[in-house]
Amino acid sequence: MSQAAASNEIVNQMIRKEKKYKEGIQKNHAYACTMAQTLSKGGRLEDLLGDRVDDYRQALRQLAETNVKHEREVNAFVATLKKTVNQPEITEYSTFIQENKEQELQKINQSSVEIKQERMYLDMCTELGDVSAQNQDDELEVVGGNATVSLKCPITGTLLQDPMRNKVCHHVYSKHVILNYIRNRNNKCPNVGCVNTNLSIGQLEDDHQTARLVKREMIRLEEEKRQQTQNAIDFEDDED
């Protein structure tokens, strides 16, 4: 085996380990989210920790930001490795990778949403309970960033059903609605102002975090409806 072929084999082995590289980040994120549940607003540790609870919550938000950055670095590293495949003119691999990795990372950062709008950061905010219901339009604002998680499907304007998130533009839709939308040969994201014009089923994934928010909102709306009914009954009793 020639030196070039041997180098290509090593590079391909490293590329195939992309999933393994990210597993550590995902495990770290999952553990942090579990910790966040115990520190959520109204959680069992809130009274015990007192004023310190806000410091712990902020530390978990910062950890979520770090996890996002690490995942982007992995993506940049793998993208750089792919550039070296079948390039016999490259002799100084370490120098090439170091220089090009920074360029790839810069491109990823420029084309991505803000870190505080990334999935992992929003997950953390959800687990910490950094949400507040907006009764007027069925939306939840995620505190700690400039992101707003809408619980309305952008196509129907109604509460999301079986939410699916777009991995490219990060917008969320009702599953059956967006699938029909795509099958009718619509290839532009239906969210107003979105520049994603290559919408496809392959871009979609189930959004379990938003599904949880929808479930909470449905419970809140049901409780609100029950309370309104009870108030009406009480009012009628008073009239009698």
* SSE pattern: HHHHHHEEEEEHEH
Helix share, percent: 55-70%
Query: Helix segment count?
Result: 8
Our Rg estimate from Cα atoms comes to: 23 Å
Main beta sheet: 3 strands, antiparallel
Distance between the termini: 96 Å
Shape: flat
The total number of structural domains is 2
* Low-confidence sequence ranges: 132-148
Strand order of the largest sheet: 1-2-3
Calculate the mean pLDDT score and round it.
80
Extended strand count: 6
Structural class of the secondary elements?
mainly alpha
Strand coverage percent: 5-15%
Domain SP-RING-type: 136-228
Pathway: Protein modification; protein sumoylation
Main location: nucleus
GO molecular function: SUMO ligase activity; zinc ion binding
SSE topology:
Layout lengths: L2 H14 L1 H21 L7 H4 L3 H32 L8 H19 L7 H9 L3 E4 L4 E4 L5 E3 L12 E4 L5 E3 H9 L20 E3 L1 H32 L1
Antiparallel strand pairs: 1-2, 2-3, 4-5, 4-6
Helix pairs in contact: 1-4, 2-4, 2-6, 4-5, 4-6
How would you characterize the overall build of this protein?
It is a single chain. The chain is mostly helical and 240 residues long. It has two domains: 3-120; 151-239, Zinc/RING finger domain, C3HC4 (zinc finger) (Herpes Virus-1, 2-Layer Sandwich). Helices cover 58% and strands 9% of the residues. The protein contains eight helices and six strands; from the N terminus they run H-H-H-H-H-H-E-E-E-E-E-H-E-H. It has helices at 3-16, 18-38, 46-49, 53-84, 93-111, 119-127, 175-183, 208-239, and strands at 131-134, 139-142, 148-150, 163-166, 172-174, 204-206. The strands form two sheets. A three-stranded antiparallel β-sheet has the order 1-2-3, with helices on one face. Strand 2 and strand 3 form a beta hairpin. Helix 2 (18-38) packs parallel to helix 6 (119-127) and helix 4 (53-84) crosses helix 5. The chain is flat and about 90 Å long. The relative contact order is 0.08. Residues 132-148 have low confidence and may be disordered.
